[in-house]
Design brief:
By secondary structure, this protein is an alpha/beta fold. Helix content is about 25%, strand content about 25%.
Length: about 200
């Protein structure tokens, strides 16, 4: 104590940098589950029940037990450090909601493309979307119970991915597994030289 004042320094408040990441992939691949597993807040979900009217356009082959679908987006948040916050936006999986993707992709640092080896072709459109727009992404294979397991290189070859695209096996239900995926997305985006983008507005 000097002249009645503490000499303990007061740390200035830190304004966190907000980074926006997308979680994309086919219908029923686990996007909503992934966001819910990692979010530190109660995730915003826009799920509706599947109906008979949607049966002709909603391909549930391989995910017959699925009863709901995302019609707009999922939203979650995770704080990596006091100065770094990730905002997660899960995209809708069906073709008829793709008009929302361009809005969701605005200001995104990078993306996760979730894949299911039982329906690998369902992630082709998401891979193509991010490749065409130059948005760095990580391909994360969601290892469903009972699904065949393949080496990372086999998945890479099947999707004809660029060698620079990380391929990771994960469990979208497990927080630590999802955290590993998100770290890969951020590192890949930084390596791709997208750090000059403005922080995301949310």
């Amino acid at each position: 104590m000097v002249f009645g004042r503490s000499d303990r320094r007061i740390r200035p408040s830190v304004t966190p940098v907000a980074l926006k990441l997308l979680v994309a992939g086919g219908f029923g691949v686990g996007k909503t589950t992934l966001v819910g597993a990692i979010s530190e807040i109660k995730p915003l979900r826009t799920e509706e029940l599947l109906t008979e009217a949607g049966r002709p356009v909603d391909d549930t082959c391989g995910v017959e037990a699925k009863r709901t679908t995302t019609v707009a987006m999922d939203f979650g948040r995770i704080t990596l450090r006091e100065d770094l916050v990730l905002y997660l936006f899960g995209t809708p999986g069906q073709d008829r909601f793709w008009f929302l993707w361009d809005e969701l992709a605005q200001g995104a640092l990078g993306a996760v493309v979730l894949a299911d080896t039982r329906r690998l072709e369902d992630c082709f459109a998401a891979v193509d979307y991010f490749e065409r727009r130059g948005i760095a992404f990580t391909l994360a294979v969601n290892c469903f119970d009972g699904a065949a397991r393949y080496p990372e290189e086999a998945v890479r070859d099947a999707l004809d991915l660029d060698p620079a695209v990380p391929v990771i096996m994960c469990d979208a239900r497990e927080r630590e597994s999802v955290k590993h995926v998100l770290v890969s997305v951020v590192e890949n985006a930084l390596a791709a030289g997208v750090t000059g983008r403005s922080p995301a507005t949310v």
